[in-house]
Records
---
Amino acid sequence: MKKISNILSLLIAALTVMLGCESTSLDVVESPNALNPSQASVDFFLNQIQLMTAQIHSGEEGRAENGLSQFGMEPVRMQHGFGPTYRENYDPSDFDRVWDNVYARALIDIRTMNPLAEEAGQFTHIAIGQILEAYIMMSMVDFFGDVPYSEAAKGGEGILNPSVDSGASIYQAADQLLIDAIANLNKDETSLPTNDLFYDGNEGQWRKVANTMRLKLYLQTRLASADGFGASASTARINELINGGQLILDPSDDFLFQWGTNNASPDSRHPYFDANYDGAGPSSDFYTSNYYMNLMANQYGEPDPRIRYYFYRQQSDFSGADVVTKECVTEISLPAWWDSSEPYCLVPATNGLSGYWGRNHLDDDGIPPDDAFRTLHGTYPVGGPFDDDSFRNVSGSGAINEGLVGAGISPILMSSYTYFMLAEAALTLNTTGNARDYLETGIRQSIGTVVDFGASLASGTGYEPTTAAIDNHIAEILANYDAGDDTDKLRIIVEQYFIALWCNGIEAYNTYRRTGQPDNLTPAFTTPDPGPFLRSMWYSQTAADSNTNIVQKSAPSTPVFWDTNADGFVD
Amino acid sequence: MCLSITFAHAQEKTVTGTVTDQGGVPLPGVNIVVQGTVRGTQSDFDGNYAIEASEGDVLVFSYLGQRTQQRTVGAGSTIDVQMEEDASQLEEVVVTAQGIVREKRSLGYSVSTVASDKVESRPEADVARVLNGKIAGVNITSNNGMSGSGTNIIIRGYSSATQSNQPLFIVDGIPFDSGTNTQTNFLDGNTESSRFLDLDPNNIESVSVLKGLSATVLYGNRGRNGVILITTKGAATGDTPSKTEVSVTQSVFMSNAVLPKFQDNYGGGFHQGFGYFFSNWGPRFDRTDDDGIATAAQYIRTGSNGLALLQHPFNFIADPTLIAGYEDLLDDEYPYKPYNGVEEFFRTGYVYSTSVNVRGGSEKVNFNANYGRTEDIGVTPGNKLLRNNFSLGGNATLSNNFTVSGVFNFARTGYKSPPNAVSTGSGAAFNGSAIFGDVLYTPRSVDLTNLPFQAVDGRSLYYRSGNDIQNPYWTVANSKTSQETDRFTGNVSMSYALNDWMNLTYRVGLDTYTELNLYGQNRGGVDGPTLGILRTSSVRNSIWNHDLILSAEKKLSEDLSLNATLGANSRRDTYAQDGIESQGQLVFGVLEHFNFTTPSSVNSFSGTSLNQNFEENLVGIYLDATLSYKDLLYLNVVGRNDWSSTLERENNSLFYPGASLSFIPTTAFPAIQGNVLNYAKLRVGYGSSAGFPTPFNTRDVLTLGARTFVDANGNVVSGNTVSDVLGNRDLSPERVQELEVGVDTRLFNRLNLNVSLYQKSTTDLITNRTLDSSTGFRSTFVNIGEVETKGVEVDYDLNLLRESEAGIGFNLAGNFTASETIVTDLAEGTNNILLTFAVAGEAANYAVEGRPFGVLLGSTIQRDDNGNKVVGPNGRYLVNNNITEIGDPNPDWTTALIPTITFKNFTLSANLQYRHGGDVYSVTTAGLIGRGVVDSDDPIDRESNYILPGVFENGSPNNVAISSTEFGFNTLFAGGINEVNVFDGTTIRLQEAALGYSIPKKMLEKTPFGSLSFTLSGTNLWYKAVNFPDDVRYDTNSSSTGVGNGQGIDFFTGPSTRRYGLTVRASF
């Protein structure tokens, strides 16, 4: 009896501890570390999608590569790309992050948000998602050509190797998204977004974005031969859009993302500000191309009025530079393939502004210790310091409070862009309106936007451009325009568009491949033949590696569908 | 070898006696078992033993190399036994799964044991590193040379692609968490300890390693990667010493960093031109040939000793506020010569280790108490480990057929080091600071030691004009990581003898620790957040483990007996982490959260929440039955069914069986037994196991960012986003199976030779499959693929000379391991699976179908259709960025040779290791040679030009000459060609050497000492990676990818250390 009670007491003790508590429960599959999808908020989705759009455009804090905009600025000599050939300018893995942001963040969030918003009658949320999706997917086609779309973001349905769709079909879908977005904006919604980071819920402004994006779409496809696209379709649609009067034509309607000044938890500053002014000096990617600075400093009789807002010079002269800080300083002879009228090593001070220190196109030398010389991004649009001839050293670890402390903008579709697009359309497609007038308004609005943006820093420095200076500058440009033939006219329109596009490499890269202008960009630095131009980019490394339906390109030279220009059209 | 459980018995008495050897010398450690029971003990230091037995019982006395003796208990209570040397009967008793004690001969699988003397008094505080090279089939790799850093252990190859391949640690019968709680992934720092660091090697009585699945079935799915069974001295109190014994061990070791051999001919610059650069391709120091330094802008004059004198680098610092207070240095002339800055940066390390052990008791109750203290001051400044261990164990036999035993261990481990983020040869590649990245390739002409490293306001200060490299001394002074761990492990076991052949045991164990992690850096750094950062997190990890075991031992007939164990097990793991990260330091130098402006609950490096909770429950039932026939044939059948909480109900159960057979031909056919073949055992075993995934991978989740963005007005904007990980409700356990055959022999009365062959395969691999993000997700866990490992393990022990015969003893032991894990199948649509985090543009480990597990894929030199290397117009190689296989990191085979020479009271022993093959992608080598601080074996003539062998894209031969800098720096280092930095990892190593002397007992008779011995010993005394460039002195026993499934990847792992010192042991 005692034995049985002994056994029982041991068993009971064991079983009580083993089974009596939570230790044998097998029902713990839900993670306590995240939300359940049923707890999603439509407003929170929209916030995330809007921020992601800005990051796809301008990159993220602390990342080596800074979004599609930077990828676009490097080949067209706005910023410096390493090369030494186009093939080597980028690695496929450089595009992994933006690919992730597009598909695994923006697109899946839009697709997940839509049914929830539909059910709740939040049509404005849906419309904004549609507009952003159209913008993002058009940009993906612009950079990569044929990419997954109709089968994209369907991993949950078991599609783990999405096929690519033709660029033209994605553009068609984007156009439809924009049309649907306008329809959704016209519906009565149950509630507006609580945090519309772009327009604070103003549906009229979103309608203008949708229309302007259609203008961009049809200008972009004016050379395309795919069904539904081409010169006649473009002409008809653009004229419709002009007549509709619902384009972004006033700077108050600018489509831009406003960054903040918070530097941690999370870093909410313009990502390029972080790359210029945080810690270890400017990140090695951040050289402005000598071509671009020269264009603004020296092309006309006076420097462009925006130049002090765009760039900050740390030095006024380079007497302290030597072969160490810049190899070419001591090299007198130009490479054989270099036009002597082009800036070679330094940007000359033809118009009296000295100290612009950039880098030549596709220069793959190591990064010299030139932090103290390098010209940095200024006030517009990244929120850095205004160039008031103070020539301070702002590249070190003490520079984090410079200028607007990173409260810059990502310019996505500015009103000035509309005018430049209309100017190109008028010149090449004979659409409604006068190219010269559009050009002038474009330049004026761009200068106005930049000057207003930097007013808090520039005012009182004595370096704000006067109205007369602005007028004179524009008059000179227009005089050149008037004197030129159609090629010259197109070049001038695109040059001025390029200047207005500072830090929007997406449109600059597209415009260059579409128009072939400016046709006088500086050549590659180390070799006369850097290989075929980047007519599109490598596919993301992870995508090509993990998706059996994506085969990596043999070279990043395949034109996208709207680029029907001949081989060697641009270089 | 010792029993922690003693079983009460009817009509018993205590039998005592003394066991001596052939020469009459008391023999400690003899196993004494009451035949037909699991009751047993060991003789103590003086050969004395005491055991409960009844009249008529048979006592079996066994000892390795001695003929087993049997004595029947008669009326008396004293039985003295003299053992006879005879190696034909290996009656060794080993602890197997769930603490079941078995005669080694009955096992159908191999079990390797390592005794305490091979583990204690070693210069390494980490038990895994101490085991390195001692057991065939066990591959042990340090993360880096820092004391206390993590250690990777792989037993018999890899069985899972993305689940853990780390073995299970069982300490004193209960699971012991051996995790490495990395606070960010290895890219941002790889300093965290593996938690078996909390074990004091000096408190270990024995280590058994169960390698094969047929041995580990009873441990459930966690045992699938092998089990390391550790018996601490606290649990080893099954025997009853006649008196209380105190033993004390004190060790002092020194350690040195094994640094590259730097060249001293050239200084900083490029193209033989001087510059205050971070590369070393500048002019000659000796100023013969081309006196390039004289043309430098910084050149002032030639000093009296012929050295060129330069303007101090502070003259070129662009930001004048940095050098405020150091203006007097501006006029200092700075000699252009080689400095030994790197050599002076590392220091001599010390290890102080103390261990005190007390054991004693009475007939029914005995105990063991242990205290250990280890202080390990690393060679890297700022690196230190301090550990205090307390343990108390004991058992008691109660009068009512109950036996109770328990062990309690407490460990406090404190560890700190500077951060060690991945460096690809230019500072830190990611968010954290990188202590080794910034220091190892310091140009020879930089006087690292004597330059001020900190500006008056605390900012890092160095020699470059842009001040864009963090001074390593600043890192040491201002940046640190630490882990403070308090750990308690304890178990209590209660046994009740149901009758004379059945026992019921309940054992409960708790292993719990709190780990306080800190990562901090003052403001003013160049790497990491400029405004300073402090991240602290506290982890509480617990394992509750319960076993209820019914064991039976019954003689079924004259020849047939049965041993059976039926058990139920439940294990609950919980991990709770809370933390806070602050940025924006206010007062320089104060690393406390109150001194920071911006708190956050998110780790800004990894983007993950600092608050993480995991729980996992596992329930299993198991059966183990052994049928033995005449002590010559043993059939063992095992099976276990597990239910895991990490999978959905439909898929959460798996049964896995095993069986093994052991046959002793020398017993079955006594005719074959003789002086040639003393003993032989043939064994064959089959085992299987399950692999359950880590928790929370079956459901889709939504990531909430409470602070996704702060707008320009300071408003906090929240967001939610679909998680990047696609949940998979259909996920099921992976299934591992293994077949093992082996033979254990003793030959010529001198040679023990054991050979095992195994083949292991895993199907339904739980794989973290990388998805093209156009699926909407970046990865998902799926059951795809198969891996298969084949291997052979040999260990031997040859008594070349017996001390008793020759006066000098010479024993040669050793082991040999060859294994290969092949990825035999990946699902259709999967090209490869990335096994670790990858660094963009650098090689990484992948699983590729048909290839060895973990092959290195990376970029290569572009080749044309004819296989020619293609150069670009600039004369440098074009890069093929489509990643292709560039190396196999798995060594072909490894072997260790352990000679021991004994002469009188001296013992000289060593552990020599050889690793054949196994490629290493070495960024250290690339960085040191590419930055020009180390000359490769085929030195780059810096005053020559080079034409790379290859052709242009049009097929014509390359004729463009490039400079030595372009060759060394741009091609070998910065060219993005991973292929050129893969080296064969064949290594010869003197892993251990020791010279011991024990004072003869006679001399101690009039002293209080029972024994006294002195040992001089060292580890990692010498090594050479024969196919690496000599001067790099790269140690292949390191891995930047940390504890996990990566290997052969080096992103500046840092120098390894050579350790040596003296140990004194005494017992009273």
Note: Chain A touches chain B through 123 residues (CB under 8 Å).
---
Amino acid sequence: MNPPLAETEAPYTDPEALLQARVLKILKPCLSYWLDEQTLYLTLNLSRPAVTRARLEAALRELRDKAYLDFRVDPLSRLTEWRLTPSGHALAQPL
Amino acid sequence: MNPSPPNPLLALAQEQKENIFIWLREGSDHDAINLRLHDAGLPSATRQDIDLFFTEYARERWTRRIDRAAEEADALIALVRRSPGQIPEAVLAALGQEAFRQIASGKVESADLARYTSLFLRAREQDRAERALDLQNEKLRLARRNATEKALDAFARELPQNPAALEAFQNLKNQLLDQTEHLEEAA
């Protein structure tokens, strides 16, 4: 019998899909609040595999293009800020 | 191979773990941490235990912070909403977003933010109470002035046909003039 998957281990073989799932999982508890890209980047890099800024930006763009994420630019910090759309919340539900 | 023994630091109560994390973040070295553990009546730890504890606890703490930031921001909005006086929804939304940003990014602890907000609300309430008292005093002063004016008007209407009132008026006039003179002398 195979051992059960650890809670944090997502069933993804594609590293980009895994990264997108990790982004959705981080944004899920943020509800309607906006999370800035810097905090998102730091949070992703607390655990392995490490994520570069370019890969994170590509993952965010792809999720935004699929309408799973909303984004805006904070006028003070000039950082992009992200949150899940209703369909993003539905997608992130099982994560 | 024998499995390594569990890290004793990770088994401590939440408050103790938080304290050790803060000591490490302040730059305490291995010996200083063990001295503090000893002072707190806790078992000593190896250098490896301490390094591992810092890595694991920092990660757990950060994740918990992000997970709870929205709840903390919502709680802060609820606290402000319960305070007297109407605050526009747009202001509350901006406050919630800023609280979320500060907590999620690790710049401010949620408990500190709640404490600052309570202090601000208390100061605001006190200011409002003082303003209300000033307004009440001003209304009282105006009411007294109106009553005095009415009484004087009534008195003036009585004067031509009432010699006693005329005499009383003269006395009052003299009295006021005397008082004015005394005031001028004193000045």
Note: The mean pLDDT of chain B is 86.
